[in-house]
Specification:
The structure holds three protein chains of three kinds. Chain A is mainly alpha-helical. Helix content of chain A is about 70%, strand content about 5%. A two-stranded antiparallel ribbon of chain A has the order 1-2. In chain B, helix 3 packs antiparallel against helix 4, helix 3 runs antiparallel to helix 9 and helix 7 packs across helix 8. Chain B is globular. Chains in contact: A-B, A-C, B-C. The interface between A and B is large, with 47 and 52 residues.
Amino acid sequence: MLRLERRPEASHLMSYASPAIAILLMLIGGLFLFAFLGKNPIEGFKVFFINPISDLWGVSELLLKATPLMLIAVGLAIGFRANVWNIGAEGQLIVGGIAASAVALHFQESEGAHVLILMIIAGCIGGMLWAAIPAFLKTRFNTNEILVSLMLVYVAQLLVSWLVHGPMMDPDGFNFPQSAMFEDSALLPLVFDDGSRVNLAFVFAIGALLAGYVFMFRSFAGFQMQVAGFAKDAARYAGFSARRMIWIGLLAGGAMAGLAGMAEVSGPMGQITDQVSSGYGFAAIIVAFVARLNPVGIFFASLLMALLYLGGEQAQQYMNLPSSISLVFQGMLLLFLLGSDVFINYRLRWKREVAA
Amino acid sequence: MEGSILSSILFATIVAGTPLIIVALGQLIAEKSGVLNLGAEGMMSMGAIAGFAISFETGSVWLGVLGGMAAGALMSYLFAVVVLTLMGNQVATGLALSILGVGLSAFIGKPYESEILPTIEAIRIPLLADIPIIGEPLFAQQSLVYFSWALFGAIVWFLYRSRPGLVLRAVGESPSSAHSIGYPVIRIRYMATIFGGAMAGIGGAFLSVFYTPLWVEGMVAGRGWIAIALVVFATWRPFRVMVGAYLFGGVMVAQLFVQGSGLEINIPSQFLSSLPYLATIIVLVIISRDQNTVRLNAPVSLGQPYRPDA
Amino acid sequence: MALTKIINKLAIVALLGALSGAGMAADNVGFVYVSPIGDAGWTYQHDLGRLQLEKETGVTTSYVENVPEGPDAERVIREMAKRGDKVVFATSFGFMNYALKVSKTFRKTAFVHATGYKLGKNMGLVNARFYEGRYLTGVIAGEMTKSNVLGYVAAFPIPEVMQGINAFIQGARSVNPKAELRVIWVNSWFDPGKERQAALTLLSQEADVITHHTDSTAVVQAAEDQGKYAFGYHSDMSKYGPKAHLTATTHHWGDYYVKTVKEVQAGTWKPTSVWGGYAEGMIRLAPLNKAIPADLQNRIREMEKQMTAGKLHPFAGPVVDQSGKTIVPAGQNMTDEQLNAMNYYVQGVVSKVPN
């Protein structure tokens, strides 16, 4: 019978092949899903995966949608590498968006670049503050950061709901739960002048990916975190500070998620509403895993994930499928990936049953 | 009049707490074996749609509940294969299960979105249900409410009075020593995980078949996550799960009652709604302060993969 | 070799073109919905309007449901404009800024936004005077209640919702000065579990006629289970509570859609702000339940006629707020401006406005 057997060494090949296998399995699963729903699988495939990027506008939308995913995933990857499990990026994104909005609303009358610069700083700090709570509790009281960061997502959602119904509500907005529209000085400049919505945040995201790459593979702190992730005891033996890693891991994720929140309110939204949280914080976790916690991988995985969102919209418009199909694809992708990852450390072997 | 309002508040609190109890007790068993499944939201969603669809198609409430249970169990089986056999990361896999379950349930549920089920009658226990104030809340509830209490009793007995319960706890405390004494760690974890999924499925079916009773996309509305928080809040003890679930339910119910009564309170409702989450964080801090309290409360191997190298 | 490549490329381009334009005739009209169409509710009523439009004008239509009120909405709206839809109806408040933005790029497309307040060069506004129907249901509630306590499950305290609440109690008090109204906010347009819980809470607090301004049927179902009365909203919800459902304030967008599209086709369309009520046929009551006594039914029919003729105004003075301040003196009607700024309860509501 087939048995799993531990490989003498982790397979390098498999660690790169497994995302490819997962994507392939997801596509096959998708074809079955379309067929099961009585749709032509080939047409479904085209509508879902090709239609959204069949013109430049579509590609620009893909980049727009992928931008927050790239930002958040690279921040999370830094922590995940050291086994610091920040799964509350969604909340950190919201608080970053709130902080940036507070700046934008405060400087409503003023012109000049300082507004945007302050918004960026506020966004990062907002996200970091929210991430500092699990970091502090973890280092001080040894609480589980998974659960604390997750609980704080709900608190952040309620916080933004309260703010847009109260202190941040547009005074001229007929009591609708949303802030005033930001002035132009508080909006991120667009990258292309062809009417697409891609803004400066995309440039930040690329910068963040580069910086993340340098940190992970070219800095001592990044090396330490890597070691701590692989072998806790070895790291302790080498005298690496576990506390420092927890702080770095959570703050990096918080800062990037906060920046992503700033980019949402200052980019495509142009105001803050309680819809600022659209699941990017959770989707970025999938991105980070599919990408093997590697910045290069994160670039491509973010694009793929963004395509799954856009494809869901298209499937709804042209095939009359519910848009929740995006979630089904995302879930399948991550499950297949996690499943096929086993072959990095194990291999399948035929083993004859040994008679007892 | 005062009494009847108190009675209604109690009644509503118990109803609101019931799905949380069922799901959280299931997760408690899984976590006691060392498996952290963050997919409760997804499993509940699948349980809700399966329960609703099967009740609707067959006209049988109990087939619906069984179907919801099966859907939850199937989802957790998927999780168990990835996590226990293929040794995937528990956090990420649980998250994937949540996303998949919410998405898939919305998908399957499309045709049922406008259907309704008949309301399920409460079971009145003669005489007892006529006791003032506590009679209605305790003895005139729907069957699954009584089930949640029976489940509580069964789990207390199982964990603290039975041998398999002892083995389960041993597996969660130290899988390697449990393995060395000869217990099938992986198989026990499989069973505990699937039990957790089955209960999450029933919890979901309670929402769609007993509580609302209708199916709409996103109707679980975060209750799966609350159930996970609740297990931590309860420091992995069944009795505290019950208390916590009624506290969580009570906060929501009390908010509505205060509003309806026209009392002036200047606390934003969002603040009240955030209390359960903040309380969970505080409990986490209290139980994690030092190694001893952690060991007393949390299953030591929670979330850690284990594979016997046989 | 090169030739086959080019042919292949052409084939792909043609295929993509065919796909993206699949089934779109020259005169297509796009609809953006915030929630699933379902079987009752806000979006369902808009979809009835869409079907009426197809039937009466012969244009093709397409819709996207469940569109989040965030940046994704802009993509959906733009996709419709880009592929050449003649008219785009954006049917939820949260689409306002996105629709306005897209309308500035696609000047030849007519945009219509429902329930907002920003008029554009090529974006019109539409809303309905929901409160007119609310007033009539209030009259019925005032007559039908035995406990003199009415209940209202509401989503968010925006003027549209406040108008409904206040019109309801104004109507009830016009026939029953002892009537009082309890309001519970669920802070969500759509959360059946919480809506039901809120309804049960109101019923346990002695309310015997309840209604809601949220988007599910849970409140009507709850009243049916408890043997009390309820009014539907948006749609006729009698299916969900045959005994409980007295009637419902229902929305009718079809005539307006037909008129708009015909004007666009004729080239006479101008973006305007339409706020239609009984007179325009945009608000009607669902069939009245048999439980309502015949003479009351007749009175309601008579009031409907007066309202259509503009002789009955739900906020005819005197309108007095909770604190006892006179908002509208006797002999006057509340102005549209005052209606749009409504952020208080009138007398008869026992709850307090949140925040």
